[in-house]
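REQUEST FORM: STRUCTURE PREDICTION
Request ID: SP-0412
Submitted by: Lab K.M.
Chain count: 1
Length (residues): 473
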Amino acid sequence: MFKSVLFWKIATLLGLILLMMIPKEMLLNVINERSGYRESVIDKVSDSTSRAQKILGPLIVVPYSEWVETEVDGKKQGQRVSRHRYLLPEVMTITGAPNVEVRQLGIYKAQVYQGELYFHGQFESSSLNDLDRKGIIIGTPSLVLALSDSRGIQQISPLSLGSSKINFEPGAFLGRSGQGVHAPLTLAQVQQGKFNIDFKLTLTGTNSLSVIPVGRSSELTLQSNWPHPNFVGEFLPLQRKVDENGFRAHWSSNWLANSMNIHFASDSVNFNFDQLPAFTTSLIEPVDHYQLTERAIKYAILFIGLTFFSFFLFESLTSLRVHPIQYLLVGAALVLFYLMLLAFSEHLGFTLAYLIASLSCSLLIAVYLSAVLGGWLRGALFAGGLLLLYGVLFGLLQSEDNALLLGASLLFIILAAVMLLTRRLDWYQVADPQRFTVPKNTESTEIEAKAKEMAIDAAPAGGGSQDSFRLWK
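STATUS: Completed
RESULT:
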């Protein structure tokens, strides 16, 4: 087996494929590095404006203290305990128009949105009736609006409650979620039964906008100029319309669906602000060329393996030989495709970069193989097959749902082509060392000259048999 030409050639090709995985891993590191640069730019923009916004409220916080007596060692002891009662809206309606602006630092971009949000809430104070008893001292209630990053508050109108106009002040009184604003109310305003509140907030943020549906019935309507929204989170919009001019979406939920009132049932609320379910829309670039390039590189071993196997098959079916150095040069051109794709996609977008990189590398390989394989037609055929593979790869990258189907179909077609082309090939003859040894007795002077040249090249340094085989001619 170890004197078989076929064995050593296959082993050499496998070694060459493994060798080409080294620059592939280096490219993956470059992608991670460039992606990290992009994320740092987004962080810088967020630091100078505000980060992704998550809104909780409006809701009313009623502080009170209660005299509590406990018995210790048969003696009664009392102390005043401070608590908060949370009054959630019966109806919460928010409408807004966050328009997106693209901020650019160098070659990297970040999306910043800014717009007005109109809040309307309807409250009912019957849940406060149990506080009207002996030992209870009620403090000053406040209407609270909490945000994940209060730096994004550009302007907020006074709170409208009946005929009253109340200015907002800093602070949210919600434990861990201290960021936000509050409007101080009077106890009479809160205990008037049903009442409505209205105010307007001009808000700035990056990446995403989320609203927690705290109302018994909550609705959110957003309209924006951003044509690439990504609706994520626990609730999808019931209605949405997206076109090149932007999007419009409408969300709706209630306590039966989200059990939001359970989080505020206790007078000592302890919840994680970031974990509360919300209406969420992402306002970022939908196509991440770094992720697409990384996915494309994962198919590099398939491209290199198919190309090298095509050369091996060509050698087996013809008398022409391809040297390992020529294999490596073609493999280097295949790896260069991914580097060009990464570089151009940062400036031109992924689709145009893919087109430029695939055409450039295919043309380079076509020109090189036309000399290696002895004809323009052969080089063009190999380049055409390579372009076909690039086209299939682009389809795989653009359609995740059909990636498995396309990949399986491609492999089936390749295997069928190989089986048809080699169905009459005598692999024992291909593996025979004598295949490359020219007979000693011949009447042709040209063949004799070639036989002498092969004998000189094949002989070991210290002499040896002329029957020693060569891996590549």
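NOTES: The first strand starts at residue 53 and ends at 72.
Reviewed by: T.R.
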